[in-house]
Amino acid sequence: MAPGPGNAPDDVDQARSRIVALREQIEHHNYSYYVLDAPEIDDTAFDRLFAELQALETRFPELVTEDSPTRRVGARADQGFAEVRHRAPMLSLANAFDDDEVRGFDRRVREGLGLDTDDPPVPYNAELKYDGLAVTLSYENGRFVRGATRGDGELGEDITANLRTLRAIPNRLRASAPALLDVRGEVLMYRSDFEELNRRQQALGDKVFVNPRNAAAGSLRQLDPSVTAARRLRFLAYGVGEDTDSMLPQRQSALLDWLRELGFPVGSPRRVVEGVAGMLGFYAQVAQQRPALSFDIDGVVYKVDARASQRRLGHVARAPRYALAHKFPAEEAITRLLEIEIQVGRTGALTPVARLEPVFVGGTTVSNATLHNEDEIRRKDIRVGDWVVVRRAGDVIPQVLRVLADRRAPQQELPSFSMPANCPVCGAATERDETEAVWRCVGGLSCPAQRKRAILHFAQRRAMDIEGLGEKLVDQLVDRELVQSPADLYAIGLDTLVALPRMAEKSAANVLAAIDGARGKPLSRFLFALGIAHVGEEVARILAAHFRSIDGLAGADWDALLADKAERQKENAKRRAAGEAPLAVPLEGIGPEITAAVAHFFSEPRNRGIIAALLAQGVLDASPPTAPAAPVDDAALAGRTFVLTGTLPDLTRDQAAELIRAAGGQISSSVSRRTDYVVAGEAAGSKLAKARELDIPILDAEGLRALLESK
Ligand code: IVH
Fold first, then answer.
1. Is 431 helix (H, G, I), strand (E, B) or coil?
2. Residue nearest to atom 15 of ligand 1 (CA)
3. What's 132-177 look like in SS3?
């Protein structure tokens, strides 16, 4: 069997042929990546090849050659620009992919510095590993004279003219510095600028970039600097070239502070940490913050903070011994789109889902990704059979970002995507809802897919909370036509459940008990459970607080309500202009789209039937509805009871209570049905939960002020 990853060769001949193959592959990918700016594999795959070669060369030192990719940095520079020899070589970083490798790094550092086990932990400067392009900026007597790419680490390309167009790079230093100074850092593009650039490129019919790194590379390597100038590139400094000058700060952390003073942007977060625990703590923190950063990073970098120690540790062939890159799993990968499947949601919405050739991205193997909707697929011109860029960041559902159109062979006639005319589940017609750009199956609850989703929605914890009624069981109940609507759940008998495959008597009894317990719920929960389009938990709460009963809601005169609302909004515009207190507006946050959906839901005889059947089962809290919420603008706060909970941002609790009492209101310490408002601040706990449970209006500090002012 040919040796490959996972089965390391153990004799020298096998190792030699594997090493030759790896070097060829790495050189090829280096060329595609560094010279052509057109990667064919993702970073993780490349890093793996490299790690395998390194491991083999460590095991068979006699096979190491001077021209191995492990002995030099990246590929040689392109032809278009003049060559520059770096005053000090531009090194690379050793990579770590797990905690153990970080421990190994710390151990080697401690050994190299001659530290004992009982010596204190080593201080490291922990910083971000920017996913851009390394550049060096030469300053002579404080003036920017030359900028170059890394190239092979010894010779780079002279891109001074292009770098000069970056506003992040100072032309003159803002503080005194050695006569000769090389500043090292990374050129990159912010994610938002990248999206914007791609939108522009697409509109012009120009090349769309794969990721911000490639967009930055493509923009920097422009022979015409005016193109670079139009691309909004950034620069982040992380070090200097030569480190002989005694004027330089003697710690990496202080060096970065100093570079900032000289006028260079330096990324954050960065922090001096102690030993392995400190490094791993920083890694975990950054992993959390990563999705919120404005730019891509592919890991963090640890550097021994004391530059004297750095000098003592020195470097091996390609990387300093004092620094380590701790990499994150790549968030983007390239794979093949095998199929576009259509899923039918609870409201009949058809969602296209990409079936992918499995690919390792964001730390797991991904084989499905969302494609959002038809317009999105058209806009991105995604076709079955395409090579696509898939992104998986944090816990977010994987997405197909874009197609690699150049990889679509010209003769390859891939059909463009269109939504099916019939529901793939029930065969009913589909129609496009123009207001939302969504296609829907018109089958409603007669479509098994919609029925299953509706029942699962009804049963979920935040709705009727029926434990044990999961996807598998609902599939069975619907497929066997035992349950047509949520109301049928309450009529299921033990025999029926026990007769289902893989259903033990004990768990059947538990499910029945859970269904039986799903009664007497507050109106807001029940409304949410019904699964009316656009009625999420918040909207359900607002509707419940306003109408106070299902009959009130079912019989709502929406036209009159909306007219009243519009009237008040108009009046408020006048009042605001005149500096007067505004009127309260009923059903704040509920627009015509929602009211139309609610009205439509209650107009369906079938839905009314289901609701009647559910009410007969006692699903709703039977206690009489409290008095309707008084419109806020009807006099003062006389007779209104308030409960205060949590900390308000700029008001003590006593101050808030005083304001309420001054307006005639009362303060109570516990939430009950007689409470009119709960004023909730930071860290509000059980009282807030109780208020939600009872559908009591909740105010924040601002809401309280608005209420007081409206009196
Ligand atoms: S220091 C002395 N610090 O990562 C070591 N490099 O594989 C020189 N990079 O091409 C690099 N962020 O461009 C250093 N905070 C950071 C970095 C960083 C990104 C890049 C650098 C280099 C590559 C090393």
1. strand
2. 129
3. CEEEEEEEECCEEEEEEECCCCCEEEECHHHHHCCCCCCCECCCCC
Ligand 1 pocket residue status of 9, Cβ below 6 Å: no
pLDDT in tens, 172-194: 888 899 999 999 999 999 999 99
CA distances in angstroms from 446 to 245, 341, 601, listed in the order given:
79, 21, 15
Count of alpha carbons within 13 angstroms of residue 400, beta-carbon side: 34
Q: Determine which residue's CA is closest to atom 3 belonging to ligand 1.
A: 238
Q: What are the tens digits of pLDDT across the range 377-429?
A: 998 899 999 999 999 876 678 999 989 888 887 766 788 899 999 999 999 99
Q: Establish whether residue 318 lines the binding site of ligand 1, counting it when its CB lies within 6 angstroms of any ligand atom.
A: no
Distance in angstroms (rounded) separating the CA atoms of residues 140 and 381: 50
Q: Is the torsion defined by CA of 528, 534, 536, 541 positive or negative?
A: negative
Query: Cα(63) to centroid of ligand 1, in Å?
Result: 28
How many angstroms separate the CA atoms of 641 and 625, rounded? 17
**How much is the average pLDDT of 569-577?**
84
Our answer to whether residue 565 is catalytic in this structure is no
pLDDT tens digits along 653-703: 777 888 887 777 777 878 888 788 999 988 777 888 888 888 888 998 888
pLDDT-derived band at 626 (thresholds 50, 70, 90) equals low
How many Å lie between the centroid of ligand 1 and the Cα of residue 27? 20
- Among 238, 271, 293, 307, the mutation site with the greatest number of ligand 1 atoms within 8 A of its Cβ is 238
**By the 8 A CB rule, do 297 and 144 touch?**
no
- 3-class DSSP state of 221: coil
Q: Is the pLDDT score of 630 beyond 90?
A: no
Backbone angles phi, psi at 592, to 5 degrees: -60, -30
